[in-house]
Amino acid sequence: MSEAKKLAAEKAIQYVEDNMIVGVGTGSTVAYFIDALAAWKDRIQGAVSSSEQSTARLQAHGIDVIDLNAAGPLSLYVDGADECDPDKCLIKGGGAALTREKIIAEASERFICIVDPSKQVPVLGKFPLPVEVIPMARSLVARKLLELTGGQPVWRDGVITDNGNVILDIHNLAITDPVAMERAINQIPGVVSVGLFARRPADVVIVGGQPPLVL
Ligand code: 5RP
């Protein structure tokens, strides 16, 4: 699958233009994108990063990392996903970076999602749905998620997000109405964000292959 991830990432470089500030996601697919972006480092202004992990890789390539508050609206965001449905709705957060990823997706005019073919699903939910939660609300939110979704929330023990919070992964879901589920989970006090990207889905999905598929 890593070859497919690389092919998707390299295809996404076609969307980069001179002088851009590029929004950059997190994960192994995005790592290939960052490596390819290195060839553009003197042609772009820099990148807005969604995680400490991506920041380190961008800086190692000499790409300037710019604060989103200074950058303003972005024209392009490139990120991976854990699952992608036919409407380009996504599950994200396998790498625990969902909140910053969602913020950058919202700030961006165009969201290009880069995946290998295993990420394409007819219905979201086989991959456990990540929810970032304020630590003191962990048990409360887990009970509410169980009630609300019927899935099984599991604490991702040992993981603290870049924002100092914890992750609950909801197992055994079949998400037939992703927009409604995203909205409902967002209402629970203590939830910082949910890794459902449905209200703001991807605009373009690139599935790695020979040749890559652009959806
Ligand atoms: C990180 C994410 C990633 O985009 C997602 O987990 C996919 O990762 P990978 O490209 O390693 O398969 O949402 O929070």
From TrEMBL:
Substrate binds at T26, G27, S28, T29, D79, G80, A81, D82, K92, G93, G94, G95, K119. GO terms for molecular function: ribose-5-phosphate isomerase activity. Signal peptide: none annotated. Keywords: Isomerase. Pathway: Carbohydrate degradation; pentose phosphate pathway; D-ribose 5-phosphate from D-ribulose 5-phosphate (non-oxidative stage): step 1/1. It catalyses: aldehydo-D-ribose 5-phosphate = D-ribulose 5-phosphate. The active site is at E101. Belongs to the ribose 5-phosphate isomerase family. Homodimer. PANTHER family: RIBOSE-5-PHOSPHATE ISOMERASE (PTHR11934). This is Ribose-5-phosphate isomerase A. It comes from Thermomonas beijingensis. The gene is rpiA.
